[in-house]
Design a protein that fits this description.
Layout (H helix, E strand, L loop, with lengths): L1 H13 L14 E7 L4 H12 L12 E6 L29 E7 L4 E6 H7 L5 H10 L20 H7 L3 E9 L3 H5 L10 H11 L4 E5 L25 H8 L6 E3 L2 H9 L9 E4 L25 H12 L6 E7 L1 H7 L3 H25 L5 E7 L2 E2 L33 E2 L3 E7 L3 H5 L2 E2 L14 E4 L1 H11 L8
Parallel strand pairs: 1-9, 1-10, 2-15, 5-6, 5-9, 6-8, 7-8
Antiparallel strand pairs: 2-13, 3-4, 10-13, 11-12, 14-15
Length: 477
């Protein structure tokens, strides 16, 4: 493993990549919003609680409503340098309702199999790193990879292409900035767990114009100051030395950390001293999910919301006349699903949905749909959430209890799945996804219109965004 990391550094240092060719009359701006670990019913649970019905979220009015496959190349945790163990995917297998007596062993306990389709959904799933790599680079790879191929080579991600085209890059997350999904748009590493190297690359590359998230070493998961943090607390930002250089103004970034500064950046009153901002919310873990308790209430006062971080990033990126690429992640939805914590999942998904609204309002106030594309999706399902009678009725929908009330549900897992997950797109270039989609009648199980019973692969998010921006993928010399 050490030799692979050394090879990675050597390759990154020596690679000479051809600048991408930029076509005319394409999207100036791309905004990709990813809610981590949200299967179809996770989206519905938030809408039921928030609105008492479906159809009232910003994404419900988008041009494209479809689904997406998320499976990885293989489930190894390191490059295999072979085709052995390659994952195949047949969406029709998801809907098989043959009764089974299997047991799925989870971290929280055991889950009865019930139906063979459930077993298929729970098998050969992606992790967030391989999923982020597929979304950001257009390449399937092994689980654990951050823009690293199964052949041990660095993969070029869309953030690099965007910057080379003259656009600015922004990355926002409700979890640590070096966690899998944001790292997929900022870094390269053979292992997602090498947070120190990933954090160092984020800071020292200066690739992004704005990076906002958590992972602050001087605060705990409850947002409380830590007098003497251990070395491990600094890993998400590249270690003690990198954090010291960042806060001393010795990098490309102006550093911010207080809620007041994030809100000022969002409302346009913050005074920037340079061109780039890196902000760590005063929490080592998440914006809100890891606070004490398991339900609603008692929000951390020093944490801004994800919509605030989204508005802040847009205000910075909009200064670039050539446009921008922005990725916003609602990262803790996945954490809530792992815990089978429905209230916190709903809370996190609503925060994400409000970030979508912030992006839509920005487009309509400051841009237009002829020059901006918004893509909304998730990186994979988690928890295999379904209705209370889904032990006898395959994929029974969750049951709406009205606005402000918990829907009735049943969990069938406490980890990732390879369900087909929702995908929405609106604006310049959104037609790419419908053009490249395949029909899947089984999606009728989710009660969606026939027009939405289509799916694409997660790698199509990269290719669709590249096509929208008019950038052609090029190979290294």
């Amino acid at each position: 493993m050490k030799s692979l990391k050394l090879a990675a550094l050597a390759l990154l240092a020596s690679s000479a990549l051809v600048a991408p060719a930029l076509a005319q009359d394409h999207a100036k701006n791309i905004i990709v919003l990813i809610t981590d670990g949200a299967g179809p019913e996770s989206w519905n649970a938030a809408s039921y609680y928030r609105h008492g019905a479906l159809g009232h979220e910003a994404y419900d009015g988008f041009d494209l409503k479809a689904y997406m496959a998320t499976h990885p190349l293989n489930t190894s945790s390191e490059p295999t340098f072979s085709d052995e163990g390659s994952v195949t995917f047949d969406p029709t297998e998801l809907w098989t309702d043959t009764a089974v007596d299997t047991v799925y062993e989870g971290a929280l306990g055991n889950y009865a199999g019930y139906f063979s389709g459930y077993d298929y959904a729970r098998a050969d799933y992606t992790d967030s790193a391989a999923a982020a790599t597929a979304l950001a680079s257009g390449q399937k790879t092994y689980n654990n990879s951050i823009n690293w191929s199964n052949n041990g080579e660095s993969l070029r991600h869309i953030g690099e292409y965007a910057v080379e085209s003259g656009r600015a890059l922004g990355v926002v997350s409700s979890v640590q900035i070096s966690h899998a999904t944001p790292a997929g748009y900022l870094a390269h590493n053979v292992s997602r767990n090498d947070y120190v190297a990933i954090g160092t690359e984020i800071v020292d590359s200066g690739l992004a114009t704005v990076v906002l998230g958590t992972g602050h070493p001087m605060f705990d998961a409850a947002g409380k100051p830590v007098a003497e943090p251990a070395d491990g607390a600094f890993r998400y930002i590249g270690g003690r030395d990198t954090f010291a250089r960042l806060t001393a103004g010795e990098t490309d970034y102006q550093f911010i950390e207080t809620r007041e500064d994030f809100e000022a950046l969002a409302n346009g009153t913050f005074e920037m001293t340079g061109d780039k901002i890196l902000g760590l919310v005063q929490n080592n873990a998440t914006l809100q999910f890891n606070r004490p308790g398991v339900g609603f209430g008692d929000l951390l006062e020093n944490s801004p919301s994800l919509p605030t971080l989204t508005a802040a990033a847009l205000n910075v990126l909009a200064k670039d006349e050539d446009g921008f690429f922005l990725m916003v992640e609602g990262g803790a939805v996945d954490w809530a699903a792992h815990a089978n914590n429905l209230p916190r999942l709903i809370e996190e998904q609503i925060d994400f949905n409000m970030a979508i609204e912030t992006a839509v309002k920005w487009v309509e106030a400051n841009s237009n749909w002829d020059e901006t594309l918004i893509i909304v999706t998730t990186d994979h399902g988690n928890g295999l959430l379904a209705g209370p009678q889904s032990d006898t009725i395959a994929y029974q929908p969750i049951v709406n209890q009205g606005q402000g009330a918990m829907p009735l549900v049943r969990w069938h897992s406490d980890t990732h799945t390879r369900e087909l997950v929702p995908l929405f797109a609106h604006g310049a270039g959104s037609e790419y996804f419908r053009t490249n989609a395949a029909a899947e009648a089984g999606l009728a199980r989710y009660g969606v219109d026939e027009a939405a019973q289509i799916w694409v692969d997660n790698t199509d998010i990269f290719h669709g965004a590249m096509a929208a921006m008019g950038i052609e993928e090029v190979a290294a010399n």
